[in-house]
Amino acid sequence: MGNPPKKKEKARPHQRQHPQKPHFPILWKLIAVAGLALCGMIVVLLVKRAPQSDISLNIGDQTVPSDVFCLVMQQNRSEVVSMYTSQGLSTAQTSFWRTEVEGKSPARALLDDTMQELQELAAAYQLAQSCGFGLDGGLGGVTERMETENALRSAKLEAGEHVYGLQSYTLQTYLSYETDWIASQYCSDAAHPGMDISQSQLYEYYQEHLDQYQKYDDISFSYLKVDLNQLDDSQKQAVQTQAAQLAQEMTQGKELQQAEAYRALTPYITHVDILSDQVASYSRAIGDVMELGWDLQPGEDTGLVELNGHLFLVQCTSRVEYDYQPFEQVQSVILSQMRKERYETLLQQTADSLTIEADLTELESFIIQEMEDANGK
Q1: pLDDT tens-digit profile of 271-304?
Q2: Cβ neighbours of residue 261 under 8 Å, at least 6 residues apart?
Q3: Which of 53, 114, 126, 170 is the most exposed, fewest CB within 10 Å of its CB?
Q4: In this predicted structure, what is the pLDDT of residue 376?
Q5: 136-148 pLDDT, tens digit each
Q6: For the residues 75-90, what does the mean pLDDT come to?
Q7: Higher model confidence: residue 111 or residue 39?
């Protein structure tokens, strides 16, 4: 099959497939990691509490165990608390989980979110059983299978044998492991409904998502980047004066790399050569520089730019332009992506079709009891 004509404009790195997320300073990354770790500890501690009583809940042909219900409930708790506290409720109120806002209490909202996630979870096990993947007991047997697997891993470790992956599973990690395995098994077999995709369908998807298969250019930059907040007044004045002079000379053909005479600037001048497959990693490291300079052609520069307390001057020194990746080269990637998308759609359709057998009022009362006991109220 032929390939489409080359586009005239190249998309910026953050506009293509897998757009980059905002770039956090290292400090914020550490805070975020610490926060996630703390949240994980809180969830684990809450889930380890034995529920006051077993629940009765069936979704389709799947029995939902109490520990799975509690796990999903706790995973959704923070978002519900945040939503209701932003509307004026306080968790210090003993009636927090029972108080209605616009006709719905936090307990009911938490139940709705929990049930939605449990329906999707039950749908995965429903599909697995319909395809004969084993997993005796489906969702209802997940805890027993986890305990069996943990016992096997423990025995291997005690015998000095190597185990792949985790040394032992929590319920959360084991559910993630099994649902990922179900998706992988389902998507790997063209005989499963929705997984038989023709060559013409693959090529149609390719044409509809061309920007995802456009190869980044190789590009080189010389750039000046100065954190003005780190300079005293005299240093700042010297840098700004020399940078203005250099920028003026560059309008007359001087290259940024030829700035040896500007002694106040030389510690802040860097050159990088970025290959196509390095664009994503450099975007995380010097995303501000790449954002400023991505559209430049060789010899062009940004002029002086002051942004977020930094002084920039970016010059493109070389560029090798690339076209879209050929269809034949990305065909297997497209097949995998289409199968994943179809599986997600089928999973949602299955979840929506499953009947729920439960007393929702009792489940809401169960949530209130669990939440108030956890808070000591």
Answers
A1: 999 999 999 899 999 999 999 999 999 999 999 9
A2: none
A3: 53
A4: 66
A5: 899 999 999 999 9
A6: 94
A7: 111
DSSP 217: P
The amino acid present at 33, given as its one-letter code, is V
pLDDT of residue 12: 53
What distance in Å separates the CA atoms of residue 126 and residue 114, rounded to the nearest whole number?
18
Q: What is the secondary structure of 85-151 as a DSSP string?
A: HTTT--TTSTTGGG--BTTB-HHHHHHHHHHHHHHHHHHHHHHHHHTT---TTGGGGHHHHHHHHHH
Six-digit token string for 176: 């993630």
Tell me the C-alpha distance between 139 and 118, whole Å.
Answer: 10
Length of the chain: 377
Closest C-alpha among 368, 350, 367, 360 to residue 57 = 360
Give 251's DSSP letter.
T
What is the layout of strands, in order, in the sheet containing 58-59?
A: 62-63, 58-59, 356-357
Q: What is the pTM of this model?
A: 0.68
Tell me how far the alpha carbon of residue 130 is from its chain's centroid.
Answer: 30
Q: Sort 102 into a burial class: Cβ within 10 Å, 0-12 / 13-18 / 19+.
A: exposed
CA-wise closest residue to 299 among 258, 241, 263: 258
pLDDT tens, 299-319? 999 999 999 999 999 999 999
Domains of the chain and any CATH numbers: 36-188+339-374 (no CATH), 215-320 (3.10.50)
Tokens for 187, please give them.
């998507």
Q: Give the other-Cβ count within 10 Å of 358's Cβ.
A: 15
